[in-house]
Structures are given as structure tokens and as C-alpha cells.
Amino acid sequence: MILKKAFTLLSVSSCLTIYYGQEKNIDTVFVFDNQMKKVKLFHSVTTLSPADIQKNSSNLSEVLRFQSPVYIKENGRGAVSSPSFRGTTAQQTAFVWNGININSPFLGQGDINNIALFGYDQMEIKSGGGSVIYGSGAIGGSIHLNNDLSFNKGFSGLFNSEVASFGTYNNFLKAAYSNDKFSFKASGNYSISENDYEVPEKNYINRNGKFHNTTFNIGTAYKIAKNQTISWQSQFYDATQNYRILAENVDKTSYQAQTFRSLVSWDIDYSKLSNSLKAAYTEDNFKYFGIYNAPFTSGGISKNYIFKNDFNYFIIPKLNINIIGEFQQNQGEGLGTSELKDVSRNVGSVAGLLRYFATPNLRFEAGIKQNFIEDISSPLLYSFSGKWKANNWYQVNLNLSKNFRFPSFNDLYWELGGNVNLKSETSVQADLNQEFSLSGFKLSITPYYIKIDNMIRWVPTAFGYWAASNVEKVESYGLESQLSYQKSFNENHAVKFIAGYAYTKSVDLESQKQLMYVPLHKFTSNVDYQYKFLNFFAQGMFNGLTYTTSDESKKYAIYPYFVMNAGISATIFKKYTLGFKVNNITDTVYETVEYYPLPKRNYSINATINF
Asked: What percent of the chain has pLDDT over 70?
């Protein structure tokens, strides 16, 4: 019954657009995640362009490692990889594709190296809770993979090809066409790497480390009326990862993943009212091969049907109400020897947000959300944000929220160890962002606090297997800061500098010990310099002491390290670019997961043609 009520509210909110509205001109750029613009009114968000992503073209792990405060656990280059925001777990990070949460229903998280890297128009990174808008898992932070479509731009295209160390080849092609009513964009990417690097200091050879992946993206939009747009965005991703083996005479293993995502949106946009009705389908297929080129050992298929409506109305010019209704059906099927049988669940939610723009420099937002999850109780969620620009050089932003993550299919139904009585993880948190601006410099300082209850952990049992249980309470607190500077010196010189520092203390309240794989300190810096047709960039990343055991043993800890990358490129006739990059210039021996070092110094060359 409650699911029916949630679905009814979704339908009613979409129908309200028939009765209200005043005309306004639609932007020349259509963005699929219509909430992100509102999020940026109250939260600090890091936006990475395709050019930023190209600097770390190996995989998404590298992008996040060098250009965000997120800690990345990577079991060797190109292998299984997971993020940690503000001392939280991978399951407490939401991956959002064009406004749709795409965390795996099986694991409750995203495997970073099995998420496509290229084909997005923006990648946006938001620290802090966001469950009221983006759903389960948005506790520590969220990573947004966004596409847009432009109108009145005619035809454009781009081709990029890269050759790199360890037998790595990367090719990307994109084409777009638009007029005043119609827009179309398509892209494709193919990456392959032998990935056979060695780290002699650790007696490490990345045997059987080969990976390859293919991605296709296609999007189109059509203005059916002056204030209405129908759009469609889809992505297909196919990948194979081989898992490292210790010797040549042992069985080689591999993992195959296929992902399909498709989204249809009907958007209505007036001066006082807007509405976005979306229908989406996502599917994830994966297979594990215990012996390479033999029949698969285990695997799974998940299918998700999603309907979402986002209704936004200005009651008066200063007061805005936003109602978001969503309904999902999640289906999962275990394959082969998987200990998960066929499962499904229905998930509904209704959220309401009220925004008050008191003055041009003072604004507030309050939100509330109720989820209706089949067979799982769900807490009432809330959020509050206030932002005040005191003067030209100082502004302050306060955020409070309650967020959650409901148990995954594996947590609930794994044949040995799943627990159908699990509760949802919940968190309460606060952060205070202060930003100072002076002479082109911007300094932001954000202390934060997170308290997590009912954290789900797999713990050993007396019967010899591991089982899921709500056993932990965790407290995370720390500081994120960023210093940036950007300036053009006449037509020939331009410089951009961004440096970030994160201090993270994440403690198991029972043991009073730091959580595993949460570094106390992390520092990143990115510098870009342009002189006429030449571009230069440099990146630095320092990672502090990181414990790999629950007892804070320094014997097994990952000790601090510093890694630096750099690159140079030249653009000729505004169409042709040739670039050269050196990764790990310092030739540092380092790892993010114990026993899995990452590559030492390596190189790449790339060429780009714009047409």
C-alpha cells in the first residue's frame, strides 16, 4: 500500500505541470541531471572537464586519486578498485549517472575500474551526505557522471589516440550535431593494456594483468515545444579484467562485466515551474572465470527499472518548493556457483525540499524524505543548508543531514551468511564550509563530522563462514581544504592552480581504532600553464600513513608516499594537438592496497584532432 501511495504521488506531481507555468526561454544546453544546478547553490562541488579527465587517462581510479580528496583502494592497476569519502566505505559512496543512482544492487557499491572513463561532459565530485536527493549510499559523498546536449551548435567532432607504457592503447571518438530544435551526440572508446608492469623493489610482477574495455554513448534531444524537451541518453560498456597470478604455472583467472544504461526524459520548463519525468533501465552482467577460456565459474545479472519525477515550483520569487518522487524495481539473478538465488524488491520514495532566497546573498534549503523499501524499514531522512555571502571576500555555508544505505542483495540473501533481518545503515552529519577570496585566490576550509550507526560488516561465525551483521558504530571527523588560483596574463599566458588537503579521522567506536585504508592525511595539487599554443600540467599527490589492519599495526601499514605526474602538449591550427605525459616522475614505489604496488615511472603520447 505504501508503495502505491509513493507511486501515486510521483504521478500527481508530474501532472501538476499541466496547470501551472509561465513561459521562459530554454537554455541552449540541456543537462540530464537537473538537480545538480540546485545542489551547487548550497554545496561545494568539484567539476572535472573532459580535458581534466584526459590527464589521467589510465582509468577512473587515477582521475579520482590525483584530482579529488577521495582515497582509492586499487588492487593493482586496472583491477578491482573502490573509493572512500571522509573515512567512509565504498558502500557509503553513491555513483550517479545523469541523476540516476547506479550502485550495484548486489554489492551496494561501484567498482571504479568497471565504470567507463570517457564519454561524459562533466564529472562532478561532491563530499558529504546527499541521500535526500540521490538516494541510498550517499553518506560519505557522491561521484556524478553527467552528459549534456547543446542546441544551435552545428557539427563538431573529436578523435583522440594514446599509446602508453605496458602495451596500453586508448582511442576515443566523439561527434555531435545540433540545430535550434534537435541535438545529437555519440561517442565511442576502446582501451586495451597488457598491463605487465614490474616493481623489483617489492619482487612484484603483474602477471596476467591484462584488461580491455569498450564504451559507446549516445544521446539525443528534441524540443517538442518552446518549453518542452524530450531526450534520451544511453551507455553500453563491455570489459574484461584478468586477475594477477603469483606464478606462470598456475591457473589464470578473469572477470567480465557488461553494463547497459538507458534513460528517457520529458522536461517542461517555465519561469515559475519546471518538471522532469524520467524512465530508466539499467542492467549489469558479470562473470568470473576460475580458469581463463573455460566455462565461467560464477556470475550474476541485475536489472533495474526506474521511474522518477522532479517537480519544481516558485510559490513567490523568493520561495521555491521541490517534490521528487521515485519508484524502482530491482531484480537480481545469481549464475553458476553463485550463492545468490533469484531475488527482487520494490523501492519507492518521496522527497520534499523548500528553498528560500532571502536576499541575493542569503539562501536556505530544507529537505525531508521517506523511503518505502520492501521488507526493510527505512528512517525518515532530512537535510538543511544555509549559505551566506557576507561580502566580496568571505562566504559561509552550513550543511546538516541524515542519510542512509539499505542492505544490498548480497547482505540480505547470500546463501551462507546473508541476513534478512539487517537494518539500514544511518548517519547524521554536519559540515561548515568557509570560503575566502582575495586577488584571484580562493581558499575553502571545511571541517566535518559524521556519526554512522548500524554499519553492516561481514564477520566470522562459529560455523566457519562469514555473515552480515549490524555490528559497528563509526565516528568520522576531519577537515577538507582547497586553495585555487586562476588568471590570464594577456592573450599569451594563462595559469590555473588547485591544491587540496584532507585530514581524516575515522574511528570504530568499540575499538577506538582508525578504520582500515583511511589515510590520516592526503594532499593533492594540480597546476596548468598555457603559453600561446603550448600547454603544461603537473600533478602531485601525498598520501599519509594508512593502516591495513584493524589494530593500527604499523608493521603492516602503508607508509607515506609522494607521486608526481606531468605532461606537455602543443596545439597547431586550433585543430591538432600532440601531447606527452610522464606518470610517477619520482619513480615512487607505492601501493594503495597491501601487496599490490602500482606502476613506477611510465610514459604516454597522445594525439587529438578536432573537426
From this structure: 96
Cell numbers representing residue 375 in the block = 521488507
Is the predicted pLDDT of residue 461 greater than 60, yes or no? yes
The three grid cell numbers given for residue 286, joined into one nine-digit string: 558479470
Distance CA 488, CA 384 (A): 38
Rounded to an integer, the average pLDDT of 354-362 is 97
Q: Please report where in the chains the cell 600513513 appears, as a residue.
A: 545
How many other CB atoms are there within 10 angstroms of residue 416's CB atom? 11
Give the tens place of pLDDT for each residue, 261-288.
999 999 999 999 999 999 999 999 999 9
> Which residue type does 377 have?
S
**Which of 172, 174, 173, 175 is CA-nearest to residue 155?**
175
8 Å CB contact between 460 and 438: no
Q: Where are the beta strands (DSSP E) in 60-207?
A: 71-74, 81-84, 93-97, 100-101, 122-127, 141-146, 148-150, 154-164, 168-178, 182-193, 198-199, 204-205
The residue written with cell numbers 557539427 in the block is 155
DSSP string, 451-517: EEEEEEEEEE-TTSSEEEEEEEEEEEEEEEEEEEEEEEETTTEEEEEEEEEEEEEEEETTTTEEPTT
d(CA 584, CA 590): 10
How many degrees, rounded to 5, is the angle at CA 603 between CA 600 and CA 604? 145
Averaged pLDDT for residues 477-497: 94
Measure the CA–CA gap between 33 and 149, rounded to whole angstroms. Answer: 12
DSSP string, 71-103: EEEESSTTS-EEEESTT--GGGEEEEETTEE--
CB 54 within 8 A of CB 607: no
Cβ atoms of 601 and 584 within 8 Å: the answer is: yes
All three cell numbers of 134, joined, read 540521490
151-175 pLDDT, tens digit per residue, is 999 999 999 999 999 999 999 999 9
Distance CA 241, CA 27 (A): 41
**SS3 of 67, please?**
helix
Q: Which residues of 269-297 are buried (b: 16+ CB within 10 A; e: fewer)?
A: bbeebbbbbbebebbbbbbbbbeeeeebe
On whether the CB atoms of residues 241 and 61 are closer than 8 A, the answer is: no
The grid coordinates listed for 223 are: 524540443
Cα-based torsion angle of the residue sequence 36, 41, 45, 50 in order, rounded to the nearest 10 degrees: 50
Q: Kindly tell me the number of DSSP H helices and DSSP E strands found in the chain.
A: 6, 34
> What would the mean pLDDT of 458-477 be, rounded to a whole number?
90
Render the burial of 181-198: b for 16+ CB within 10 Å, e for the rest: eebbbbbbbbbbbbbebe
Rounded to an integer, what distance in angstroms lies between the CA atom of residue 105 and that of residue 178? 36
- DSSP per residue, 510-536: TTTEEPTT--SEEEEEEEEEEETTEEE
Rounded mean pLDDT of 311-315? 97
How many Å apart are CA 365 and CA 357, to the nearest integer? 9
DSSP state of 337: T
Residues facing 4 on adjacent strands: none
Mean pLDDT in residue range 472-494: 93
**Rama region for 421: left / alpha / beta (φ>0; ψ in -120 to 50; rest):** alpha
Judge contact between 212 and 192, C-beta under 8 A: yes
What contacts 519, CB < 8 A, 6 or more positions away? 71, 504, 543, 544, 545, 546
